[in-house]
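Re: the multi-chain job from yesterday

Posting the exact lines I submitted so nobody has to dig through the queue logs.
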Amino acid sequence: MSTTMDEITDHGPAHHHSTVDRSGTALIDMRDISIAFGGIHAVDGASIDLYPGEVVALLGHNGAGKSTLIKILSGAYKRDSGEIYVRGDKASIGNPRDAKAYGIETIYQTLALADNVDAAANLFLGREIMTPWGTLDDAAMEAEARKVMGRLNPNFRRFKEPVKALSGGQRQSVAIARAILFNAKILIMDEPTAALGPQETAQVADLIKELKKDDIGIFLISHDIHDVFDLADRVVVMKNGQVVGGAKTEDVTKDEVLGMIILGKCPPGATPGPGAMKE
Amino acid sequence: MSEATSDSSRATSTPTLSAGGGFKGFLRATEIDTRMLGMIGALAVIWIGFHILSGGTFLTPRNLWNLSVQTASVGVMATGMVLVIVTRNIDLSVGSILGVTGMVMAVAQTQYITPALGYDSGLVWILTLAVGIVCGLAIGGLQGFVIAYLGVPAFIVTLGGLLVWRGAAWWVASGRTIPLTDDNFKLIGGGSDGSIGATWSWVVAAVAIAFLLLAAFSARKQRKKFNFAVKPMWAEAVTVGLAVVAVVAATLIVNAYLLPGPLARRYAEANGIAVPDGGLEISFGYAIPVLLFIAVGIVMTFIARRTRFGRYVFAIGGNPEAAELAGINTKRVTLMVFALMGMLAAIAAAISTARLSSATNAQGTLDELYTIAAAVIGGTSLAGGAGTIFGAMLGALVMQSLQSGMVLLGLDTPLQNIVVGAVLVVAVWLDTLYRRRSA
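And the result, structure tokens for all chains:
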């Protein structure tokens, strides 16, 4: 019954502006995932996959199950059933540490930063650089932080201040730096541009293009199609915990995707999933 | 993006923090915290106020020396309370843990350790202390386990602990007062024997000054190695200079407190010193509990600022969800914070038991309030995520100054309680104002 997104890839590399090679092994293949909270099926038999260098936008209303599905991948929730394959191997992800071990990094909507410590401390939180004497090597961490932030946000200077003093865009760049600092292979971004102004949004878009070049696969989670449609190679829409369907962005229009989000109606260019509206 | 940055001079070839002019610039360059400055100001007001009201008896070497000894016990616990409160928890049971571990140490020493090793054994004190520390660790660890892994709020667990451990203290010795047998252990409490004298006090001061210079120098070297901005040299000199002056002043004060006549004579006889005509001038010097307090403060500052554990404590306080998502085992850290608190309560128990030469049933009663007050007055935010060990140590000194000042003025206990309670509320209110303005 489960319609995986692999079927879309069976069309071959036909489309001109898609540079994603989906012929190899998927970076992430989540199959038939379900989770219930107190009898409510937040995610119900959902399957989704992601290839190297690909940006997949996971869309749906609030409560459609997209954030829950992705939190299962990042280890924040434990699934009730279903399987996750990372680069073809069955993965057991029980907590955020497991996910990180597989190269899965998450940038949360609420920007999971510790507000009271500085940028370098946040970048290395949970993976601090230590001196040979087993103490924190703050200078080395600050040096690394300066290096990676120099790439992402060259104007950033406020390394010594607690991150609560930073602007939304600065905080976002700290969060992204944190993910790529540890060679993430799979990046999950929850509402990546929701809190940002136009200039900062453009910056994030540039950044995503850079990450694609490094063959990093990215899930973008959003309830607003306009935030992510132009960034994505492929969209997957969820409704009521189920996958409505998926499509390459060049095969569908924004209006058609909106129809998927609101009505659960699959357009001709998309591959329907179990949650698609029955004719 | 264009950020207004305070350290824009980073880009130049000689990185030195530019601070701006005036008093604010001075504070920024020296990295002196305005909150800390406020606390030292408050302490000065309290001291001078009591000095005038008491007719010149507060700011005497004798009173200040006593003040330092009295601060030690609550001060030791306040350093741990900082970490507890930073993780958004509270520990209401520390006074009772102090009571029960003090009682356990006294009973262990008089009934088991001394009989087993003999009165002359030099191992008695250390074994007694070890028993107390293990006991404190176990109690704190148990409470931490219930809080972190069973999910019972710290307020409730430690409120229960307040009763449980007080009851346990009674139960250990059926409510009796247990006098200590080991003279070495009593040194932990201070007194004329439990002080190190003038010469050793200067040795301690010299070591402290060398340590301050070395720390400043190596921090500077480290920042230069990575080509980060460093403090201007004059600012470095001012901060280190102030610290050195404080160390020298404290040493002069404790050395100015002389043994009273009969004690000095006894000391002279015991050490075979001839008593000159003008009488003996033998200094107390630093009391051992005070040195213990300072050592605990240094170790706790190191833990808070230089270890992974300390970093996690603050991260959890800032954003527990973020800490969890970063892969930090927040439950284990919480358990360890409470275990550490229990251990510090045991060290405080050793100090206060040794000072009284016996363990009593009421020992440590209300200490939880003084400990929490010290931490909060010292700048620990009850919202979590912010606080310093040094601030809490100063806070403990402020609380103790208030208390002993009122004793000196002859105020009765109910009035003392009213004042301490009111001061705590006002201090937290001022802190709230400060935070709102600096946010």
